[in-house]
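Re: weekly structure request thread

Next one in the queue (151 aa):
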Amino acid sequence: MCVCVCVSLLCAAAQLVMDVIFVVLLVLVCAEAARLTELSVQPSQHVTLNCSVDPGDLYWFMEIHSRLRVCIVRTFNSKPSNQVEPQTNKYEGVTGRSLLIRNITADDCRQYFCATKHRDRIQYEDTFNISCEYLTLLSASGRLHKTSSVS
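Done, posted below.
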């Protein structure tokens, strides 16, 4: 009898732990941006990403390594200029809720995120996955074929 009660308690505890893990995972997944936009571009193009939130104080992040993100542009609703980190002409916050990426290269083919700040916490709003298209010459046939490199 005691063994059955202990096994039942262990099963109930295991189920509780699984429920807690599920809730934590659900919260983590929901913390990611809800909207995903896929873009396929060619090198040297300029690309404008449009965030779906109302214009205001907005942060733009770039993923530089698996889930490691760096803030590249911050636009301010109350100030006329944009703060760009690092100082470069590559990225520019435009029209209050857009990010302009100039002269796309293979290094730019990755994920970008627009985010807002609520109660000192960053809230990712939209995700943009940029992949680059290339033309490759196959030496055996001498014909050009389009290939794609996804970030």
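The two ends are 58 Å apart (CA to CA). Residues 2-14, 16-31 have pLDDT under 50 and may be disordered.
Next request, please.
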